[in-house]
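User: Teach me something about this protein's shape.
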Amino acid sequence: MPGPNRKPGAKPKNAKKTLRRILGYLTEKKILLGIVLILIAFSSLAQIVGASFLKVVIDDYITPLSMNYTSELMAGFIRVLVFIGGIYLIGAASTYIYSRLMLTISTNTLYKLRTDLFRKMESLPIKYFDTHTHGELMSRYTNDTDSLREMLSNSVANIISSSISVVGVFIMMVIYSWQLTIVVILMLFVILRLIKFIGGKSGMYFGKQQQNIGIVNGYIEEMIEGQKVVKVFCHENESKEEFDKLNSALCEASTSANTYANILMPIMGNLSHIQYAITAIVGGILTINGVISLGTVISFLQFTRNFTMPITQMSQQFNAILTAMAGAERIFEMIDETPEEDNGYVTLVYAKKNSDGTLVESNKRTGIWAWKHPHKDGTITYTEVRGEVEFDDVVFGYDENKIVLRDVSLYAKPGQKIAFVGSTGAGKTTITNLINRFYDVPDGKIRYDGININKIKKDDLRRSMAMVLQDTHLFTGTIMENIRYGKLDATDEEVIAAAKLANADFFISHLPQGYDTMITSDGTNLSQGQRQLLAIARAAVADPPVLILDEATSSIDTRTERLIEKGMDSLMVGRTVFVIAHRLSTVRNSNAIMVLENGEIIERGDHDDLIAQKGKYYQLYTGMFELS
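Assistant: First, the predicted structure itself:
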């Protein structure tokens, strides 16, 4: 089923290229595909052979037996019936087997596609997710893969089977009677014209139906997520009225779509009956005049049944194939996205100090981290990770035409707490996004322990940092597992110690299952403050040299904030900490406070310095201006 973002009547832009890509995923199952093709041929040919033997049965056995019964003719008649029965049995068995094999092939193909899709998604830069909605991305995994599954498991086999049947039956009809074949072709022209008209109308309204399904589903999802807001503002009646409008539009489109879809088969059935009757009349006349035999007419009438039905099936499958190809194209578009580039070569390693104070690499966790820096001359130097961060005239914009940061320079010594304050959109979060290379700077430099961060591998750079975001995200699993997400090899004792550091241990211990309490739906069974405490504990267990707190205490009440301040102070010891906060009381003890305005640092200094300057910070702190 096409998703909300699928355009009505969506068609692939490059069907040949997309088909080649799909076939590429099927190459591992070449033997099975070969078997499937053979079985489809057996299934289709069985119908043709069975119909052609009706002529033999009637002309060679039934007609002679009606005139002169002999045991020899009866024995031959029985043998032919057994042979025809065997043919149809082989056809039925072939159909069953190839259907099961196609199911296996389609399931395995979708498994590989989803795997490639997810792996590519994990390698994409943050910018990609910032520019695509979650619903749009999810539709690749659901609607698009479902339409592709339907095509691979049913539509492809039906198209091949119908094609073989149409070609084979047409050849047999021409062989048996070219006169009757002309009658069938004339009727077929009328049938195809009707299929084109009704199918076109049906496809148009089905496109509208899918568009309205997406709108209705999106509205329902929005109302479910915002149900508290709806009830707080007593907006239930207005929500119902809006839903009724959207639902009515969906009902009208669905009614029109299904009306045309449902009348197609009855019209086709009646036309085939008319064709059958006309063919029988013309065949009877030809038989009376001795042009063809009675058996030929009976076989030909069966051929007409086997000829029109596959054509109808192919017309029905064609729209499904186009939809699936369009879905596959969307999947491949995401798979073909450029992954996050990483040209870094400096890595993060465990280290230990020799007696002379020099660093050497260690294969065990030592509590000391070092940057392993290979040089062009083949030498390797080790620099201890201290958390020294420097911005040097950094210019950055998410869009080339809109600069967010202008010539930003700052220096954070190891162990310092640097705070950023300013109104929304001033560029505070952008600075932290640049530190961990979610985005790369086009102009200026950022150095980490004296090393340009573009030289550091992104995974290693990010492993040396921990972030606590304003929007806390918790994964489905236990509380223990969610905290351990910061350091997957952390022991239970380390997890509990991190929780105590963040003052999360108290509320965790009072939960029914304690640290084994399951978290579902992004932690809806916990308060916002409790979720924030778990995020802080997750950062604590990672034990990084650099800590980034982006509105980390925004959802924590004042009392809870005071409780975690001591733990946070312990966590910050020996670490470089970047803090973004609207609540200025949380940044008073910072070593340096940067006041940003329109992407520029307009003031800097500690709390006392900035108060003495009586500038923007002073105005914000004393309430003359408010952060927005």
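Now, about its shape. The mean pLDDT is 82. The first strand starts at residue 347 and ends at 353. If you'd like, I can walk through any region in more detail.
User: That's plenty for now, thanks!
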